[in-house]
Specification:
By secondary structure, the protein is mostly beta strands. It has strands at 4-7, 10-12, 18-24, 31-39, 46-52, 57-59, 67-72, 77-82, 91-99, 105-107, 111-115. It is built from no helices and 11 strands.
């Protein structure tokens, strides 16, 4: 079974930066949308950013101008560059891959991001 493996989380001070990475444990085909979601304690899981097969991107209003999603086609990897981090960005971040027609969907195990002084 394919797993998405995330890395790059950690503790950072307000105003700092982190880069998250997500890659599948083995090759998977037919992925159209790759994205990042986050879930803070006691809250629902929310969309952060997505990138499609043709590199179109969307962002939550709360992260526009601070976060950048990108992908490496050769490695089937998706990244989330997070700059100017705020305490309210603290959450578990999950990557998500969705296949064409939603015939398949994969989630990562989550990586903790904590923004605190």
């Amino acid at each position: 079974q394919v797993q998405l493996v995330e890395s790059g989380g950690g503790l950072v001070q307000p105003g700092g930066s982190l880069r998250l990475s997500c890659a599948p444990s083995r090759s998977i085909l037919g992925i159209y949308v790759r994205g990042w979601y986050r879930q803070a304690p006691g809250k629902q899981r929310d969309l952060v950013a997505t990138i499609t097969g043709d590199s179109s991107t969307t962002y939550a209003d709360s992260v526009k101008g601070r976060f950048t999603i990108s992908r490496d086609k050769t490695k089937n990897t998706v990244y989330l560059q997070m700059n100017s981090l705020k305490p309210e960005d603290t959450a578990v971040y999950y990557c998500n891959y969705v296949g064409f027609g939603r015939r398949s969907e994969y989630w990562g195990q989550g990586t903790q991001v904590t923004v605190s002084s």
